[in-house]
User: Fold this.
Amino acid sequence: MSGNPPPRRTRVLVVEDDLRVAGALVAGLRLQGFEVLPAYTAAEALAAPTVDLVLLDLCLPDAKGVDLCRRLRASGADMGVIAVTSLGETHDRVAGLHAGADDYMVKPISMPELCARIEAVLRRVRPRPEGPFVIGGLRVDPAARAVTRDGRAITLTRKEFDLLTCLARAAGTVVPRRRLFAEVWGTTWRGVGRALDVHMATLRAKLGDPPLIETERGVGYRLPSAAA
Assistant:
């Protein structure tokens, strides 16, 4: 029986010399559906196959992480790079970003935030046409940043549109609050929780009746895949 091949999974290279941390990252990312390759040294990272994104520890036994980041960038490979490190001082962040990292995360990290950061980096590094998402009478067009419901145009603020797009992208599943924090506000700080609630209430009002966005109390929000 012939048919279209399944889409290729996103391939992530985890460069981490701490076996315990590397194992947790590899296992967690595989559970999220990524194809994951581990590398425990800079030499192994440079010899690894082509990947979509690198999670790079900046403290390696055989090279400085910032030097490895520069070499990865110099290779010309089209990949995202996220520094994942215990070095959290401002000058460390600046050095990592100047070396070519697309994002910078300080350990310990959460898997929901990491996945959100990965998706955000990949959208910047390899922008692809996305959507429009059509869910019942709702139409969300990321390219035009336009929303209609039953043909009626709906004007949203930037944050409201970004929240709706996150929900539309994952229609049918609950999007955790921490993931919305990460994707829309760029943080997992719970202090933005009130802002999320306010924007979500305004978004719901603008979308009109019957209500589309469901609340999973204490967890997050969901836009049903078969919304009317």
Notes: The longest strand covers residues 80-85. Residues 156 and 203 are 7 Å apart (CA to CA).
